[in-house]
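Practice problem 4.
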């Protein structure tokens, strides 16, 4: 009980921190028009997804950990929502890194010609749609007419199930490992790693050929920042997927509740780390964020909203 109470308290504090920090990111971009670059707008979309984690996914996780008696589809929705936000974060990281890099390789002016805010918003909408389809796929036609359309691959529950609700009681280990981890997580992360490897190879070639230009320095700095976000995502989420893999490959192995809850906490910590890392790496964004915090949250009248210089 003490362990569970500590888990609930930490989750509650983390949820408050995630909501507050990501609201601050969105407010900063609303107040500072000069910061509304395409990349920063995509980061704001990532902050909105993290806001959903703090406001909904973390409370849902606490409810699932209680193993309450709930009807099947209520339990199913509580378990599916975190999959939606996680998948959107992965696809958005892929969009931030991949689309500009692919277009810029076509011709030097391709980025300015093709990357418009309307198209970017359309791409973000497509990411949301794909995330909803992937995360909520278990709710679409599941248990239709009393049988499993997926052959029992996704769930171990029945139509009239009214019992203890938990994340592992809704999803079979095969679904979490083969579909969510291998297909929907590792493949996009592998593509991201390939994109960054190609970028650093190109920048290294330019650096060896001639001194690095200011534009290339900014591009390299942004690439390092996004690579750091990718590394933190892997650090926060891989342990939880390792737990699922162990359960699938070694069903007789002993499980430890403390390790399971630590892995869940670590996965939620990613939503707090994203805005903090971006603010520390982007000096202009960090100064604007600090100014908004001091002026509008802490009510320090001496903090004046300056005009951050673009990097």
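Answer key:
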């Amino acid at each position: 009980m003490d362990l569970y109470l500590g888990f609930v308290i930490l989750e509650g504090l983390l949820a408050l921190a995630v909501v507050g920090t990501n609201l601050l990111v969105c407010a900063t971009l609303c107040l500072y028009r000069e910061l509304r670059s395409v990349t920063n707008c995509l980061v704001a979309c990532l902050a909105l997804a993290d806001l959903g984690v703090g406001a909904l996914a973390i409370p849902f996780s606490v409810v699932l950990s209680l193993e309450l008696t709930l009807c099947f589809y209520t339990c199913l929705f509580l378990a599916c929502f975190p999959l939606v936000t996680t998948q959107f974060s992965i696809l958005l990281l892929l969009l931030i890194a991949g689309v500009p890099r692919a277009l810029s390789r076509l011709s030097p002016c391709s980025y300015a010609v093709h990357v418009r805010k309307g198209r970017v918003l359309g791409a973000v909408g497509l990411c949301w749609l794909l995330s909803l389809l992937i995360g909520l796929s278990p709710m679409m036609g599941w248990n239709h007419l009393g049988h499993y359309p997926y052959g029992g691959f996704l769930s171990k529950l029945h139509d009239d199930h009214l019992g203890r609700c938990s994340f592992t009681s809704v999803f079979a280990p095969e679904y979490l490992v083969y579909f969510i981890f291998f297909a929907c997580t590792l493949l996009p992360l592998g593509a991201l790693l390939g994109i960054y490897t190609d970028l650093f190879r190109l920048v290294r070639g330019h650096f060896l050929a001639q001194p690095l230009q200011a534009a290339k320095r900014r591009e390299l700095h942004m690439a390092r920042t996004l690579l750091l976000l990718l590394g933190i995502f892997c650090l926060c989420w891989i342990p939880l997927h390792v737990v699922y893999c162990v359960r699938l490959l070694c069903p007789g192995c002993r499980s430890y509740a403390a390790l399971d809850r630590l892995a869940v906490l670590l996965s939620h910590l990613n939503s707090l780390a994203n805005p903090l890392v971006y603010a520390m790496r982007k000096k202009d964004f960090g100064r604007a964020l600090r100014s908004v915090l001091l002026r509008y949250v802490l009510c320090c009248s001496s903090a004046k909203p300056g005009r951050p210089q673009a990097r």
